[in-house]
Specification:
The protein has helices at residues 10-15, 30-34, 63-75, 86-105, 120-135, 154-163, 180-186, 209-218, 238-241, 266-271, 306-322, 324-343, 370-379, 392-398, 414-432; strands spanning 43-44, 48-49, 51-52, 114-117, 141-145, 166-170, 191-197, 222-226, 245-249, 260-264, 282-285, 290-292, 348-351, 360-365, 382-383, 385-387, 403-407. By secondary structure, it is of the alpha/beta class. It is globular and about 75 Å long. Bound molecules: pyridoxal-5'-phosphate.
Length: 434
């Protein structure tokens, strides 16, 4: 049997791109960091410099991430955990190295508690199906909030239907914060699980997940945190939050699409049955029955997204070189700067004024449909999002069918916010001659 070695492959060295150190060096400077993102130099609609303000949907990728995908397929491509040949050994080594990078990044106690998924949605479905369907009984309760992305709502609706469990919802206050008194009251029921978002993709609200986790645990419930918007934006440590599950997506944190992570507390993951079944996740199979592989493979059926995981590892390296606390502070500064600009425009209503916030800012412009505004902005080279943002119940809560959303990341600059304001003013003038 061959032993995996950590020596770089000659082939890999041949095609290795010099951009792997991107993101580091010197004080934080968004203008310098922008140069690491080739796509940000694009001009669209002939001559408009791209202002990318749709980061809550997906972030752009630095060249180091793009290049490692190319390098992987040119110099390392093989299936992992199966073959004993050289490339398979290298691919497995790098895949597992990526898992350890993620483990350290989120402060998970063991690499066995880090499961690679397709993204946040799959991670939550894994918990809903593999834990929820087996453990929830009729009239058990799952506490969610009124600000969940459909990804952390619909999977629970399905499971509730099958098990007879009930869903309860923490109300959202007018400023976009959660009603924590109501949360405390809801926890007095037969609650088995509390599942909530860390940062709202619509309101930007940062929920006090550590406090909410402690409250749920005191009530005897498990906790799942939807960290799709928080892991990209700030230091997130699962040991500190003390949650039982935490899900996030690689593509929202500079990584490739199709890769994500579910963190789970080891003792719970060990007791759970698999989610998907097939190759990789078994120990022994007969025609009649099977036994399961150890963690994390028990939850990684089939060929995984090897290049995606390696790309995510490089994205984590990049984010760590910039610094997660630096990113948090800058995103918050830019978001507040955007809100100040929007507040100065008559007829603009911003949704979400909670004391702590991330980089997503949702708003409506009186008399201008969000889709029309998004098209207006697009013509000026500004990418924003419009619609229900996969949070229809939250739209209902605020009495709107849709909103516009501009969401910043650390490579955005104030000048892009000025351009957004100019586009909004143009749209307003067009639709009501104001
Ligand atoms: N949860 C939140 C808060 C999100 O913002 C998103 C995506 O926008 C998701 C879940 C779903 O993420 P994905 O589509 O990557 O699975």
């Amino acid at each position: 049997m061959t032993t995996p070695s950590s020596a770089p492959s000659t082939l890999a060295a041949l095609v290795h791109c010099a951009c792997h150190e991107q993101g580091g060096g010197g004080p934080f400077d968004p203008l310098r960091l922008r140069k690491d993102f080739p796509i940000l130099t694009l001009t669209v609609h002939k001559d408009k410099t791209l202002a990318y303000l749709d980061n809550a949907a997906t972030t752009q990728k630095p060249a180091s991430v793009v290049c490692v995908l190319c390098e992987y397929y040119q110099a390392c491509n093989a299936n992992v955990h199966r073959s004993l040949h050289y490339l398979a050994e290298q691919a497995t080594l790098r895949f597992e190295e990526a898992r350890r990078k993620v483990q350290r990044f989120i402060g998970a106690p063991s690499e066995r508690s880090v499961i690679f998924t397709r993204g946040t949605t799959e991670g939550i479905n894994l918990v809903a199906q593999a834990w929820g369907r087996r453990n929830l009984k009729p009239n058990d309760e799952v506490v969610l909030t009124g600000m969940e992305h459909h990804s952390n709502l619909v999977p629970w609706q399905l499971v509730a239907k099958e098990t007879g469990a009930k869903l309860k919802f923490v109300p959202v206050l007018d400023d976009g914060a959660l009603d924590l008194d109501a949360y405390g009251r809801l926890l007095k029921g037969r609650v088995r699980l509390a599942a909530f978002t860390h940062i709202s993709n619509v309101l930007g609200t940062v929920n006090p997940v550590k406090q909410m986790t402690a409250m749920a645990h005191a009530a005897g419930a498990l906790v799942l945190v939807d960290a799709a918007q928080s892991v990209p934006n700030r230091p997130v440590n699962v040991a500190d939050i003390d949650c039982d599950f935490l899900a996030f997506s690689g593509h929202k944190m500079l990584g490739p699409t199709g890769i994500g992570v579910l963190y789970g507390r080891l003792e719970i993951l060990e007791r759970m049955e698999p989610f998907l079944a097939g190759g990789e996740m078994i120990n022994r199979v007969t025609l009649e029955e099977s036994t399961w592989a150890d963690l994390p493979q028990k939850f990684e059926a089939g060929t995984p997204h090897v290049s995606g995981a390696i790309g995510l590892g490089v994205a984590v390296d990049y984010l760590q070189r910039v610094g997660m606390e630096t990113i948090r502070a800058y995103d918050e500064h830019l978001a507040r700067s955007m809100i100040a600009r929007l507040d100065a425009i008559p007829g603009v209503r911003v949704f979400g004024r909670a004391p702590e916030r991330g980089g997503a800012v949702s708003f409506e412009v009186e008399g201008v449909h969000p889709h029309d505004l998004a098209q207006f902005c697009d013509k000026d080279g500004i990418a924003i999002r419009a619609g229900h943002l996969c949070a229809q119940p939250l739209m209902q809560r605020f009495g709107v069918p849709a909103v516009s959303r501009a969401s910043v990341y650390f490579y955005n600059v104030e000048e892009e916010l000025d351009r957004l304001v100019q586009s909004i003013l143009k749209a307003k003038a067009f639709f009501h001659g104001a």
